[in-house]
Structure formats: C-alpha cells, structure tokens
Amino acid sequence: MMALIRLIGLVLAVELLFYVLLSIYIRSTRREALEKEWDRRHPEIAGNSPLRREFVRRSMIGFGRTLRARLVGLVLVLPLVAIVVIVILVNYD
Amino acid sequence: MRWFLTILGVTFGVVVFLFLDYALPSKQTVRITNTYNRLTDIGANSIFFASPDTGTVQNAAGQRDVRFIDTVRPNGRPYVYRNEDTGWIWPPYFKYDSSNLHARATDLKSTAADPDWVSVTSYGWRVSWLSIYPNAIAIRPVAGPDVRPFNWPATIILLVMGLLLFLIWRMWNQFRERSIDPALRSADEAWDRIDARADAARDRARSRIGRWWQGMRGR
Predict the structure, then answer these.
(1) Which of A37, A92, B71, B85 could pair with B30 in a Cys bridge, judged by C-beta atoms 3.0 to 4.6 Å apart?
(2) How many beta-carbon pairs below 8 A join chains A and B?
(3) Which residues from A are below 8 Å from B92, CB to CB?
(4) Which residues between 54 and 93 in chain A have a beta carbon less than 8 angstroms from any beta carbon of chain B?
(5) How many domains does chain A have?
(6) What is the ipTM of this complex?
(7) Using a CB-CB distance cutoff of 8 angstroms, which residues of chain B are in contact with residue A25?
(8) DSSP conformation letters of chain B
C-alpha cells in the first residue's frame, strides 16, 4: 500500500511540474507569435514598444480557455493512461 | 579541461546506455526446460532483485524463495530467468502476476526431442558470477527457433523518451530566447550606461583639475 501511495505521489509531482512548464511554454510561444503579427501589420513601428505590449496583453486575454491551452491538461491524464495500459499488457494479456 | 569533459561525457553516455539496456524490455526465443522455486541468498546483489516491499517474503538470514525459469536458447546454451513481482516499485512494469506467469511457463515446458519454442519478454541481465537473473515479464509461444518477434515495447518507450527530450530542448530554447537573452542584453546596457556615466564624471573631474592647474600656473 505504501508503495502505491509513493508511486501516486511521484507521478503527480512529475505531472504537475510538466503541467506548469508546458503552460509557461505555450504562453511564451503564443506571445512571440503575437509580437511577430504586430511587426507584420505595422512595419513602420516594429519592435518592442508600449503599443505592441498593449496589443499582446489584450490578445492574450482568454488564452486560458482556448483548445491549445486546455490540451496541456492531457499531461495529467496521459501518464495515467500509460500506466493502466502497461498494467493490462503485463498482467492480463 | 577538455579531456576531462570528454571523459565525463563518455562515462555519462555509457551509464545511460547500460541503464536503458538493463531496464528496457528485451525479447528472446527460448525453450523452457524447468520451472521451480529455490531459497536464494540475497546479499550485495540485492538491487538486481525485486524490492523487499513488493510482497516477497524474506527470512532473517536474508534469503528469499524466488521462482526461476530454466530455458535453453536455440544455440543450445542455457539461460535462466527469475520470475518476481515488481509491484508498484522500480522498474515500472507493475507486474503482480508472477504466479500466473509461472503456471504458464510450466505449461509450456518441453524436451529437446519435442521442443516448444517460446518468446520470453524480460528485463535485466544474466550475470552468473553475480548470481543475477533477468526478470521474465511475458511468455508467448512462437512457431520455431528462428522466429524473433519485433521488440515493440522498447521501441515505443525509446520514441516517447526521445520526444520528451525534444520537448525539453524546445522549452529550454524558448526560455533562453525570451528570458535569459533579454535579461543579459538589458544588464549589458545598464553596465554601458554606468560606464558612460563614470567616463563623463572622470572627464568632468579631469577638466576641473585641469582648470585648477591652469589657474595655479596662471598665477
């Protein structure tokens, strides 16, 4: 029983670590894409400026509810699925 | 310094290779000749056996009743597997059906005169002088000694690990590009500003001293 609790704790810790890292990562790629979009639309005021920062800030509102952001939640599910598949393949096949 | 890093890198690579070679599943076509339990001394080689808290019973002298599967390879050489639960502990095979596996192995026993070939999936090494045995995970009958099923499990695990490494590499690059490099750049600029201010202060000081000196000489 202790071993199972330890396994759950370990898997949960690794999953949460990757959940945090992945959400930071996809936010960062989205912001980069938005900055490039701004530079493409306004070649005359390209580069870092308060206007561009405001544009990125407003465009990022609601990003947490997009499909891309929600798919990061899979990181909490997929390892569990993998463990169940391994248990079935090893013990019941 | 360079040779030191080279040795360190090579050592790291060898350790990773050995670790994967030990922990990943491998398949071998063999013929089962015997299955039995034996009271086994577990001493310094204990890391190559199941963890004590997977449900194995160990007596005070450090001995365990371990199930073994004797086999013969197609080239006629013997190969011995152990059959132990891994439970929920390392390595993550989550195996708790060793009794069933033993029943299956016993069922597939055969003689040299009338061989039944099976493919045994296992992890671990057989090293006779350390008395360590690979742990059998699954046994499947195959048509003959030349049939070698493709090792799908190890391939998939390696692919997933490669993808994870690629993801970590991408995340690190993004972090460096967006966080570390701008911070370094702004630190550089701040340093330049401080430098410029110091230069200006020195120039001013020098001109003041110069004026004072000129003034002294003028008198």
Answers:
(1) B71
(2) 46
(3) 83, 86
(4) 83, 86-87, 89-93
(5) 1
(6) 0.87
(7) 170-171, 174-175
(8) -HHHHHHHHHHHHHHHHHHHHHHS-EEEEEEEEEEEEEEEE-STTGGGS--GGGS--B-TTSEEEEEEEEEE-TTS-EEEEEE---TTSSSS-----HHHHHHHHHHT---SSS--EEEEEEES--BGGGTB-PEEEEEEE-SSTT-----HHHHHHHHHHHHHHHHHHHHHHHHIIIIIHHHHHHHHHHHHHHHHHHHHHHHHHHHHHHHHHHHHHH-
| Whole-structure pTM value | 0.82
Q: Do A93 and B92 touch (CB under 8 A)?
A: no
The residue length of chain B stands at: 219
Q: Length of chain A, please?
A: 93
Host domain of residue A72:
2-91
Inspect the interface and report whether the beta carbons of B174 and A6 lie closer than 8 Å.
no
